[in-house]
Amino acid sequence: MCEIVFIDSAGRETRVQAQEGETLMAIAVRSGIDGIVAQCGGALACGTCHCYIEQPHLDRLPSPSEEEAMMIEFVMEPMPNSRLSCQILASNVVDGMRVIVPDSQH
């Protein structure tokens, strides 16, 4: 198990426990995180699970796939630390990771 911290547009933090191998998107949906809509269910077809990953965890993640990078180009407010939460798996590498949900998704 690991802990993920989701941060909403008002700066409120929600700490949730995650099972190894679970996607951040699934964790957010299960935990009722506002702004992670996940319309396509993780099929890399919509970008509604867009989030920002804070350092140092951003550098610990594998680089986005070509498909993820292309989808990020179409989200509102893309930033250098933009990721799609459907593509990030919970593991000991992400324990304590801080995930910011963009204002545009609330």
UniProtKB/TrEMBL annotation:
Residues 2-105 form the 2Fe-2S ferredoxin-type domain. The keyword Metal-binding applies. Keywords: 2Fe-2S, Iron, Iron-sulfur, Metal-binding. It comes from Rhizobium miluonense. PROSITE patterns: 2FE2S_FER_2. Belongs to the adrenodoxin/putidaredoxin family. Its cofactor is [2Fe-2S] cluster. SUPFAM superfamilies: 2Fe-2S ferredoxin-like (SSF54292). InterPro entries: 2Fe-2S_ferredoxin-like_sf (IPR036010), 2Fe-2S_ferredoxin-type (IPR001041), Adrenodoxin-like (IPR001055), Beta-grasp_dom_sf (IPR012675). This is 2Fe-2S ferredoxin.
